[in-house]
Amino acid sequence: MRKNSIKNTRINGEVQKELSAVIRSEIKDPRIHPMTSVMAVEVAPDLKTCKAYISVLGSKEAKENTIRGLKSAEGYIRRQLAKNLNLRNTPEIRFILDESIEYGVHMSKMIDDVTSRDETLREESDGEKQ
């Protein structure tokens, strides 16, 4: 099975859906922040490993605690995936903190700041010309 095949894409979607359901409703670890999302899942073509990209809305400490909590609950999460999904192998999960949303918001804010500063300078120069 190739990495970007239809079957692999479908498996990625199913694992992502089940993983988010397990994290949201079944894990009771207090370290895991309530605003935790599974952004993407990449299951290897041989179904042995899986990278789960996790986004946490909160402080840096909350993000680190959430990743630690998920790593400690990996066995339980994997068992729940095996029970809910009918796969030949249940992949070993690696949780990776995904900060792309925060990065995008930060870059958008910087662009807005530069744009507003540019408009202010343009208005000031137009006022001086008159």
Give an account of the 3D structure.
- The structure is a single chain.
- This protein is of the alpha+beta class and 130 residues long.
- It folds into two domains: 6-98, 2-Layer Sandwich (GMP Synthetase, Chain A, domain 3); 101-130.
- It is 57% helix and 17% strand.
- It has four helices and three strands.
- It has helices at 6-25, 60-72, 74-84, 100-129; strands at 36-43, 49-56, 92-97.
- The protein has a three-stranded mixed β-sheet with strand order 1-2-3, covered by helices on one side.
- The longest helix is centred in the C-terminal third of the chain and has 30 residues, at 100-129.
- It is elongated.
- The chain starts with 5 loop residues before the first helix and ends with a helix.
Which secondary structure elements does this structure contain, and how are they paired or packed?
Layout: H1 6-25, E1 36-43, E2 49-56, H2 60-72, H3 74-84, E3 92-97, H4 100-129
Parallel strand pairs: 2-3
Antiparallel strand pairs: 1-2
Helix pairs in contact: 1-3
Brief account:
The chain contains four helices and three strands, in the order H-E-E-H-H-E-H. With 130 residues, the chain is α+β, with helices and mostly antiparallel strands. A hairpin with a 5-residue loop joins strand 1 (36-43) and strand 2.
Main attributes of the structure:
GMP Synthetase, Chain A, domain 3, 17% strand, alpha+beta, 130 residues, single chain, three-stranded mixed beta sheet, 3 strands
